[in-house]
Amino acid sequence: MQNHEAIKILVTNQKGGVGKSTIAANLAAYLAMQQGIEVSLIDFDRQASSSRWTKKAPDVGIRVHCAEINYENSGIALLSSRAAVRKYSAGVQVSISDLTWHPTLSDEFMLDFDIVIVPSSSAKFEMASTEIFILEYAQKRMARLAANKQFILVAPSKVVPGYASLGSFTNLEFLMNCYITPPIHQTPDLDAYVYEDFLCVCSDQKVAENFSNFGKFLAKKIEERRTIKKTLSLSGTSLNREIVKKVSVLDDYRVRARELGIYGGYAAKPATDAPQETPPESTPGVVKGGRFIPAFLRRSE
Ligand SMILES: Nc1ncnc2c1ncn2[C@@H]1O[C@H](COP(=O)(O)OP(=O)(O)OP(=O)(O)O)[C@@H](O)[C@H]1O
Ligand SMILES: [Mg+2]
Fold first, then answer.
1. CA 89 → CA 16, 63, 241, distances in Å?
2. Which atom of ligand 1 is nearest to the CA of 157?
3. C-alpha–C-alpha distance, residues 135 and 69, integer Å
4. pLDDT (tens digit, 9 = 90+) per residue, 142-160?
């Protein structure tokens, strides 16, 4: 599995305190512990909440990295954020980036991810701001979103047990590949677990089950995304790879055609005879300044 390109997950929202770091750290732990997946956690936030949690809790094999984005301007921000994700996604099956979205960041960066998780509480103002955040992105990037089939997952976070997501985030229902995840409940004594252990294995059975449900949903989406990526063979980077393959086939063809003396429609001469390549008599063209110009490229005189 190590040869596979990592599935890149971004946990983000422009709003603070919505549960991004809690989700990022605990999702990384769930995937590593319960699904046996090789995971890296990329913590872009200065407070370093998710990386600190992951480092202080028992080691479950998550590769933890802290990264900094240079917000000097949007070009530099894009370069530095991309470089970090590329670097820390190498050699793992899944990378999870924890980042508070910043207006300087380009949507281009968001498009790099396979799955974008947007945590949001169920408070009306926060739901509205989450919907606007996603709709603005989708409005600007609809064509690319449709082509990439990136998943956007709204994660109801810190919600009361019994919360039903039905009827919330209705403005996003029309969006392709946008889903609402199972909710993550408000855990009254969360501080007892922070740094101590991860939610999916915590002693409170209900809390463990609740987070594991969320984790299972994500594991399924990761698999789906993997399958979709294989079928996206003619887009984006895969298209580039295809082109590279085709060009090298063409290169071989050219070399062989030169050897056989059929390349370019006229007989190739041994290198020692160059530069005076001349067309065979039957080929309509002229030799000018030592270069053969085929008839169809010649300006009529
Ligand atoms: N499911 C939960 N139940 C109870 N409290 C929670 C839950 N998730 C997060 N919290 C609490 O809410 C606060 C913010 O959570 P967290 O740090 O995960 O959010 P964040 O979006 O990463 O915040 P920031 O924008 O500051 O990085 C923390 O005090 C955290 O303990
Ligand atoms: Mg955070």
1. 25, 10, 19
2. 1
3. 24
4. 888 888 889 999 999 999 9
**Predicted TM-score of the model (pTM):** 0.79
Domains in the chain and their CATH numbers?
A: 7-232 (3.40.50.300), 247-296 (no CATH)
CA of 47 to the centre of ligand 1 (A): 12
Q: How far apart are CA 152 and CA 135, in angstroms?
A: 11
Q: Which long-range contacts (CB under 8 A, 24 or more apart) does 246-253 make?
A: none
Cα 108 to Cα 89, 151, 215, 239, 280: the distances in Å are 18, 15, 27, 18, 52
Report the separation in Å between the CA atom of 277 and the middle of ligand 2, taken as the mean of its atom positions: 67
Length reported for the chain: 301
Nearest-ligand number for the alpha carbon of 119: 1
User: Given the CA of residue 191, which atom of ligand 1 is nearest to it?
Assistant: 31
| Mutation test residue for ligand 1: of 12, 13, 21, the one with most atoms within 8 Å of CB | 21
Closest ligand by atom to 19 CA: 1
Q: What is the pLDDT of residues 35-82, one digit of tens each?
A: 999 999 999 999 999 999 999 999 999 999 999 999 999 999 999 999
Ligand 1 lined by 49 (C-beta under 6 Å): yes
Please tell me if the CB atom of residue 104 comes closer than 6 angstroms to any atom of ligand 1.
Answer: no
pLDDT confidence band for 196 (50 / 70 / 90): confident
DSSP 263: G
Whether omega before 275 lies within 30 degrees of 0, making that bond cis, reads yes
